[in-house]
Automatic annotation (TrEMBL):
Belongs to the TRAFAC class translation factor GTPase superfamily. Classic translation factor GTPase family. EF-G/EF-2 subfamily. This is Elongation factor 2. One of its GO terms (molecular function) is GTPase activity. SMART domains: EFG_C (SM00838), EFG_IV (SM00889). SUPFAM superfamilies: EF-G C-terminal domain-like, P-loop containing nucleoside triphosphate hydrolases, Ribosomal protein S5 domain 2-like, Translation proteins. It comes from the Eukaryota. It comes from Trametes pubescens (White-rot fungus). InterPro entries: EFG_II (IPR041095), EFG_III (IPR009022), EFG_III/V (IPR035647), EFG_IV (IPR047872), EFG_V-like (IPR000640), EFTu-like_2 (IPR004161), G_TR_CS (IPR031157), P-loop_NTPase (IPR027417). Residues 23-311 form the Tr-type G domain. HAMAP family: EF_G_EF_2_B. GO terms for cellular component: mitochondrion. Pfam families: EFG_C, EFG_III, EFG_IV, GTP_EFTU, GTP_EFTU_D2.
Length: 730
């Protein structure tokens, strides 16, 4: 690293009070596959910690709906759309000594559908730990792998909770094996169930060697006994041995004890689990059933004992006064340090824009001035609140490592705020590209609410894009899937009273070139006054995705001797990127192309930036067909789960849609099939699947790559595009 890039920063030590406060502070997220019971689990946590007086189910008869699903639409459909934040206090039992200590926990409940990936993405960006919920029957499903990838991207340690232990066919040991094989992380159960399926009575804690039962109304009373039921005693001993063996693989101290053939003490075992979990090598697995109110409290103890406190997770920021290659700066959660906070989510509340913030270092007070790191604007904090789903509590100040919300600050998702004494900026989060788009048209006359709604949704959700098609002048919305766009259209009708009609969904096709082509192009136009003149010489070649930058298009300037004056080079580059926006095969964007400019010619009077821009566009269009262009379409990874008697029908249906079956697994009474299918062939699949499986099958899909389309499809797309262009003027 060059000398001038290394800058000394004052080191802020954590004071005793900081350490005490952070020790009892946890920020966790609950994430999993669709319908594994995330919201139901959060509801139980809130009830047992005394935040809510009563339990309501997600699709309950009383029509109240779970606390975390505060939107009307979420209650109706029984799914989570937005991640909601809340906080609670829990008196946890320490695994080693059995002492009780009070912890403050911030919880974010996240959606499971792949269409709302960004909600999970931004929740994990600001959390220190997570609970990965798995279904005891279905095990590791497609969305579980997606969530696992996101946890790895932000290195978030996790504990696993196998839910739905009361369902027929529940087999936690198979699920633990799947965690080891499919998610490639070492895992072992820290509990053994007492009783199976309907007869689930409680669990045996393998670390403290106690039997734990839930009694009282809604399982609010936890009863512990030292007497372990005879029917599970041998099994529990075997599983405790397995837990120690799994830990020995990832933890040195445990490995030494195992070699010496010594039995670890409770304290050593608990410390080893915590060390291995925080260093992302291991995940302790808890068992229980949220809906039957069994064994949720021991899992909360696990959150407090095994997940990291805010000071243990490594957080770095970039100093904007230095170039991008400078080393990152580590942040310390000390309350005396200068403030650094990250806005990770926006919501339109009743009182204007609500911004969710995670404070990384320093303290934020009501009425203090904070600076927006990107624009340098100075704003005052008018009101500081703590969120509980859609209700709030006013507070005077908030310390580092906490999550809060502020009103009336104009910013975008992923912005950093400081107190003006430093120039730090947190790195942004990863935003996936949209895969599907629809044309949107309001019914009747267009009202200002139409654009107001679209602007707000775009600001809240980076994966939701809106643009206006240059030719057809239609408003096009694009997003992560059919459900994603459907929900937004429904929200426009409810929240803004704007009813819309949508066109047929369109797939995001792309074009690319497959071979190199040279160009020699002169653009000249002679009319009265100054003309236009520019000549460009060079070639276009295919390019693969660059790992570092993540871009697959590039403009390379190799002009020597100043044949093209250097002030016209940016214009050439602009022309190339403008030409990429619309390929001449099907009018979609071109990807995977590199343009190398070797030589050219400029006229001392007639050359201008415009002339060079048009010359590059003309050159690209002229040789485009010589570079053998092809059309690419998005390929999705589709996972179908259905009862096994429909296996042949489901596989036949996927083959009809030109899918490639990658993997299929048959379990006791249902099977899972993973296939890769083009998104274009997936329209209307949900109705088709319901039809062939009597409504019992379900599927989820996720974008994988773009691949070339079949020749006949390419021909169809080309002719359809030529028709829209109209006849050239004679």
């Amino acid at each position: 690293v060059p000398e001038e890039l290394v800058k000394e920063y004052p080191v802020y030590e954590l004071s005793e009070e900081d350490k005490r406060r952070l020790k009892f502070q946890r920020n966790i997220g609950v994430s999993a596959h669709i319908d594994s019971g995330k919201t139901t689990l959060t509801e139980r946590i809130l009830y047992y910690t005394g935040r809510i007086r009563d339990i309501h189910e997600v699709r309950g008869r009383d029509n109240v709906g779970a606390k975390m699903d505060s939107m009307e639409l979420e209650r109706e459909k029984g799914i989570t759309i937005q991640s909601a934040a809340t906080f609670c206090d829990w008196v946890a039992t320490k695994p080693a000594s059995g002492d009780k200590e009070k912890y403050a926990i911030n919880i974010i409940d996240t959606p499971g559908h792949v269409d709302f990936t960004i909600e999970v993405e931004r929740a994990l960006r600001v959390l220190d730990g997570a609970i990965l919920v798995l279904c005891a029957v279905a095990g590791v499903q497609s969305q579980t792998t997606t969530v696992d990838r996101q946890m790895r991207r932000y290195s978030v340690p996790r504990i696993s909770f196998i839910n739905k232990m009361d369902r027929p066919g529940a087999n936690p040991w198979r699920v633990i094996n799947q965690i080891r094989q499919k998610l490639k992380i070492s895992a072992a159960a820290v509990q053994v169930p007492i009783g199976v399926e309907d007869g689930l009575r409680g669990v045996v804690d393998l670390v403290r060697w106690k039997a734990i039962y839930n009694e009282g109304e809604k399982g609010i009373k936890v009863v512990e006994s030292d007497e372990i039921p005879a029917e599970v005693l041998d099994f529990a001993k075997e599983k405790r041995r397995e837990l120690i063996e799994q830990l020995a693989e990832v933890d040195e101290e445990m490995g030494e004890l195992l070699i010496m053939d010594e039995d670890p003490t409770t304290q050593q075992l608990a410390d080893a689990i915590r060390r291995a979990t925080v260093s992302l090598k291991f995940s302790p697995v808890f068992l229980g059933s949220a809906i039957k109110n069994t064994a949720v409290q021991p899992m909360l103890d696990g959150v407090c004992s095994y997940l990291p406190e805010p000071s243990e997770s490594k957080v770095v920021a970039h100093d904007t006064s230095l170039p991008a290659s400078a080393p990152q700066v580590a942040l310390q959660p000390a309350s005396a340090a200068p403030l650094v906070a990250l806005a990770f989510k926006l919501e339109e509340g009743r009182f204007g824009q609500l911004t969710y913030m995670r404070v990384y270092q320093g303290t934020m007070r009501k009425g203090q001035f904070i600076y927006h790191a990107r624009s340098g604007k100075k704003v005052k904090v008018p009101r500081l609140v703590r969120m509980h789903s859609n209700e709030m509590e006013d507070i005077q100040e908030i310390g580092p490592g906490e999550i809060c919300a502020i009103f009336g600050i104009d910013c975008a998702s992923g912005d950093t705020f400081t107190d003006g004494s430093t120039s730090f900026s947190m790195t942004n989060m990863f935003v996936p590209e949209p895969v599907i788009s629809l044309a949107l048209k309001p019914v009747g006359a267009e009202t200002p609410n139409f654009s107001r709604a679209l602007n707000r949704f775009q600001k809240e959700d980076p994966t939701f894009r809106v643009h206006i098609d240059k030719e057809s002048k239609e408003t096009i919305i694009s997003g992560m899937g059919e459900l994603h766009l459907e929900i937004y259209v429904e929200r426009m009708k409810r929240e803004y009273n704007v009813e819309c009609t949508t066109g047929k969904p369109r797939v995001a096709f792309r074009e690319t070139i497959t071979q190199r082509a040279d160009f020699f192009y002169t653009h000249k136009k002679q009319s009265g006054g100054a003309g236009q003149y520019a000549r460009v010489i060079g070639f276009v070649e295919p390019m693969t995705m660059d790992e570092e930058t993540g871009k697959d298009t590039e403009f390379v300037n190799q002009v020597m001797g100043g044949n093209i004056p250097s002030n016209y080079i940016p214009a050439c580059e602009k022309g190339f990127f403008e030409a990429l926006e619309k390929g001449s095969l099907s009018g979609n964007t071109v990807c995977g192309a590199r343009l190398v400019l070797n030589d050219g010619l400029a006229h001392s009077v007639d050359s201008s930036e415009l002339a060079f821009r048009l010359a590059v566009i003309g050159a690209f269009r002229e040789i485009y067909n010589a570079a053998r262009p092809i059309i690419l379409e998005p390929i999705m990874t589709v996972e179908v789960v259905a009862p096994s008697e429909f296996q042949s029908a489901v596989i036949g249906g996927i083959n009809q849609r030109r899918g490639t079956i990658m993997d299929s697994e048959v379990r006791e009474d249902e099977f899972t099939c993973v296939a890769e299918v083009a998104l274009n062939d997936m329209f209307g699949y949900s109705n088709h699947l319901r039809g062939i499986t009597q409504g019992k099958g379900e599927f989820s899909m996720e974008y994988k790559t773009h691949q070339p389309v079949m020749p006949q499809v390419q021909a169809e797309l080309e002719t359809a595009y030529k028709k829209t262009l109209g006849q050239p003027k004679k």
